[in-house]
Structure formats: C-alpha cells, structure tokens
Amino acid sequence: MARSSDLSVIGVTKTFGDTRAVDDLSLEVPAGTYVVLLGASGSGKTTLLSMLGGFTAPTAGRIVLDGLDITLMPPAQRPTATVFQDYALFPHMTVAANVGFGLSVRGLTKPVIAAKVDAALAMVGLQGFGPRRITEASGGQRQRIALARALVTEPAMLLLDEPLGALDLNLRRAMQDELRGLQRREGRTFLHVTHDQEEAMAVADLIVIMNKGRIEDAGPPERIYAHPRTRYAATFMGESNILPATIGPGGAETVLGLLPVAGNGGTALAIRPENLTLTAGNGAVHLGDYAVTARVFQGAFARVAGQIGPLTLHLRCAPGEAPVPGQTCALYMAPGGATALSD
Amino acid sequence: MRRGAVTLAVLLPMLVFIYLPVITLVLFSLHDGRVPVPPFKGPTLEWYGRILTNPRVTTATLNSVMVAGVSAALSTGLAMLAGWGLARHRVPGRGLIEAMILMPLTVSYLVVGLGLLVATGGLVPKSLGLVIVGHVVLNLPLAFAILYVQFDAPQARLEMAARDLGASEAQVFWRVTVPSLRVALIAAFALCFTFSWDEFIVAFLLSGFDPTLPVVIWGLLRTGLDPQTNAAGTLVFLVSVAAALVVEGFLLKRRKDGPIL
Which chain A residues touch B154 with a CB distance below 8 Å? Predict the structure, then answer.
C-alpha cells in the first residue's frame, strides 16, 4: 500500500509585499525520505510547507511531485495531506468520522470507509477509539487522530506543521519515535516543520536548515551536526565555538595558530564544545593555556567557560572532571573537531 | 461588613425595580377577581383558560410563532451567508459592508417600522410578511454579530483541513462550517426568535388585519385592566424565558467542553 514520490522544488519564491518569505529556493527530496524543515520563526519554513500543501500560491517557481506539476493545484486535488499545528480536528464529529472524512467526501461506501478507518486507527495505536468524541481525546490522542486522518487518504507526501509543538516533553519524545516508525513502515515521504533542532535530529533522514527564506544547509543529521556548512547552521544546531579564520590548503589560520581542518575556503571555524578536552588524547591538538572563568552543572555533563588568548571558548566534560573557576589548564581539540564555515 | 451593607442597599432596590413588575404580572394572572389590584385573592387558573380559548389570542399566538420562526430563520441564514462571504473571501470595501450590516442595531424600531410603512406605501398591503421583513431588518445585525466572530483562525483551519482532505467547497460549507458553528447558529436563532416574539412597534405598524400576540395584548389593555391580560403577558414572558434558557444552555455547554483544539 505504500506509495511514495520524489519531490522537486524548483526556484520557488513567495513575496508578501516587500518581504521575500521564501527566496528562490530549490530542493530535491527522494521518495520515502523523512525531511525536516528546521528554522527560527520567520525563516520561511511554514510558508514553504503551506505552498507544498496548496494553501499559498508561489510568486515564482515550480513544485513537482511524482513528475506532476502541482504548483497551482488546489489542496483538494493535490496528493498531499497536512497535519496542522492545532490538528484542526472537526469538533462536531466522532473520532471515526474525523478519520473517515477524506474517504467520505470522495464518495467511498460506508463498509469500505469503516474498514479503512479501523486500520488507520490501529496504525496509530487507537483501536476502538472510533465512537468517542473529539473533546474526550487528550493532546497526544488528538495528534494521532490527526495523523490517521491524513494518512488514511494515502497521500504521496505527508506535511506536518510543528506537529509536536503542543505536547509536553516526554510525550514529544515518544511521538518522535512513533512518527519515525510510522514513516519507516509506510515508506511515504514525510515533510515536517519545526524550530526544535533536537526533534529534527531525532526523526530526520534529511534536515533542511532555513534562514531568511533560503536554505542554509541541507543534509543528513549526522553531517549537519558534525560539519555544518555555514555559520548560521553551526549556531542553530546545538552549541558551537566560532573562531574567525582564514582557511587555506594547509589548514585554518586562527589566533590560536594553524589548526587542521578538512576542506578549503571559508571565513570561520566551528568547534563543538564536546570536541574540546583538557586531556592530551590520541591525535589531540594542543591549543594553549585555558583560564577557566565559569562552570555550570547540567546533569550528565558540566559546561565550562574559559579564556584562551583573546577568545572565550566553551567546553563540555564529565561533571567529576570539570575544573573550577580560577584554575588554568592546557586545552586540546579532539582530532577532526574543527569544521570550516562560510557565511 | 459595611461594604456588604452598601452593596445590599444599592442592589435590593435595583432588583425590586427590575423584577417587581414581572412578579406582579405573574401573580395577578392567578388573581381570583375581576380587576387585578391588591389584595391578592386566589389562586385560580380561570384567566389562563379564558385566554387559551379566546380565538383572537390563539390566532395571534400562531401568527407570532410563524413570524418569529420565519424571521429568525431568515436572519440567521442571511447572517451566516454574510459572515462566510465576508470572512472567507476577498471583498472590496469589507469594512463598509460590515458597518452597513451592523448599522440597524443603532436605528430605533419606530424608524424601521415607519420607514417600511412609507417605503412600501400602499403598494404592498400591511401583512405578516411585511412584519417578517421588518423583523429581519432588526435582527439580522444581531445574528451577524454573533456569527461573524466565529469565523476565526482555528475555524479557518478546520475548513483548510477539509479542503486538504479532498472536500469540495459545498462539502466544506455543509459538512464542516455549518455543523461546527451549530451552537452559535442555535444561539443566534433563539435570540432572534425572542426579539421577534415580543416585538410590538414594528408589528403594530405593519401587521394590518393579522395581528401578532403583542398587538392583541395591547388591544386587550385598551378595554381596561383585566387578569386575562396578565395571563397573556405571562405566557409571552414564559416563551421568552424558555428561549433564553436554550441559548444559555448551549453557551454554557460550550464553555464546559472547553476550547476545542
């Protein structure tokens, strides 16, 4: 039953007055990919989702799904389905009527609808919830009902607008796993919008970081986290120490001397706090003397701030090994710990 | 303690002022005597029996029910269409249209009644149909005010979701918009019904030979005080209270269910 499609976004622009919400954006998504559009509010991610769903018409550019140009196709005909941020469940219908709505308006017969609705509710773990009222459902259940309602129409692509934003932390984690599992089992393309970078890393095959209507960086989560391409991507995805640098074939020229870095070109260097250590391990690069100025206990690790030359750098270490403020120690960088960034 | 005493000193006369006429009306409808003046004697249901077998009163009651039902349905239906049209489509001069729909709220009933009388002057005979038109003019703004605020962003997303799931515009309207606004629709209908039910001025000016109940009661009053009038007034009052309870019940139920995500 799984059907999936390649998505091509070709030079899409959306302007609202003088603002370019989405600016000449192009993106290729292979069939069956879990894509997360990640960005701060105002980055254009929601506008892009809305154009994919057919609720907003692009000012320029084309959207092609499964070889079919859907740029101006109305939502009712489009082979996409959207899970809205507030779920937009129909309050006057039962759970089963909500899930079956898309089938009912297509004129399917009642027994067929009932069978498909039962299957869809089972898929999201809500067997037997059909006759209940929407107002009786909890936040997490509403989320699942909205998912079932969208998936039962067998969309070529499922669009999710901040789908976990209204849930508390534990439920959000559980639903992330479920979304990921559901996408794997169904094999459909999921396109999920969020501003939460941890959520993005937890579910995505492909993370697309958006800023000012453009793509800052796009790639698998591991690559994006370990080797962000731009300064914005490095600061948006977790914490990074950013060092101004001139990067050439021999490495990165910084105030701390010449540091080894992969790649050639760029204007800055990013070092993740966990790639800075106070012990000279195998292949570690000595950076200099580190005057510790602050230490914050964060549970599984301690976050330490200190001065090295003219720079303030942050590092993470085991709470038991954290130095106290006032102490000075040697600072090392783990091998391959630096990433070249462009603006 | 002192504040409580002051509150009571203000509140009590106010409550008496508001409710004494109603209480008197209801009490003396049960009065066992020819003239509804103290001291109270009774109680008796004689006057109710007489009023309910008086053909003028029963015909007028049916007229009133018909006028209130039809004018409330028309007001609610037109207000729903106006709200849907203005809220969901790009309409040039939307602000002006909204203001013009709401404007009759500020116009006196006498002006509306006289206006219709003059405007139709002789061409359209006075009739219940004309009363219905007058009541729609008076109640449409009220129904519009109740319904228009319902077309908010969450409601818009419900309709977007329906479209996204493949519904046609007609299916969106009849299967999502109308049923999801049913509480507001019932409230608007019930309010329009009560306002039409006991409206006198427009009905008096336009009803001609088929009077509504308030017009007949006014006619009864001209022959002097009579417990029959009290009984008729009480019945009018009870119908209004029932309609108000319907509205209250639906609105309270809505509140108890909480905001629907």
Answer: 86, 88
